Amino acid sequence: MAKTILVVDDAQTIRHLTRFALSKGGFNVVEAEDGVQGLKMLEKSSVDLIITDLNMPNMNGLDMCRSIKGNERFKHIPIFMLTTESSQEVALQGKEIGIVAWIVKPFVPEKLLAAVQRVVGG
């Protein structure tokens, strides 16, 4: 059965690019526009990996990740940060929360797919 990946980004073009890259690898993709919506999608869908943006309205990526990692049901799900933010300080915060990969936009679809496959298989 195909693995499901939650893509959380306020930019529709990034969600589409990410969906396209992951679909080519045989993954199912569910989408959310911000951290609040991302948490709601987690309640509805069984997710194997989360790819989130950092800077979003309503709830940013780090706050969403803190919420996920603090929840017994979801804390085991690996998280990738896909962002324009390349600051080491912010990336370190992400690592402390438990983010497994920090990918800076613009991203290479094949590299993203390879990283996802390394973490969840498929």
Features of this protein?
5-stranded parallel sheet; alpha/beta; Rossmann fold; 122 residues; 5 helices
Quick recap:
By secondary structure, this protein is of the alpha/beta class.
Please provide a written account of the structure.
The chain has 122 residues and is an alpha/beta fold. It has one domain: 3-Layer(aba) Sandwich (Rossmann fold). Strands 2-1-3-4-5 form a 5-stranded parallel sheet, with helices on both faces. The longest helix has 13 residues. The chain starts with a strand and ends with a helix. The model has no long low-confidence stretch (mean pLDDT 95).
Give the topology, please.
Elements: E1 4-8, H1 12-24, E2 28-32, H2 35-44, E3 49-52, H3 61-69, E4 79-83, H4 88-97, E5 101-104, H5 109-120
Parallel strand pairs: 1-2, 1-3, 3-4, 4-5
Give the second-level CATH assignment, the architecture: 3-Layer(aba) Sandwich
Q: Give the CATH topology.
A: Rossmann fold
Biggest beta-sheet profile? 5 strands, parallel
Strand content: 15-25%
Number of helices: 5
Spans where pLDDT lies below 50 across 5 or more residues:
none
Reading the helices and strands in chain order gives: EHEHEHEHEH
SSE class: alpha/beta
Helix content: 40-55%
State the shape.
Answer: globular
Give the tally of β-strands: 5
How would you write the strand order of the largest sheet?
2-1-3-4-5
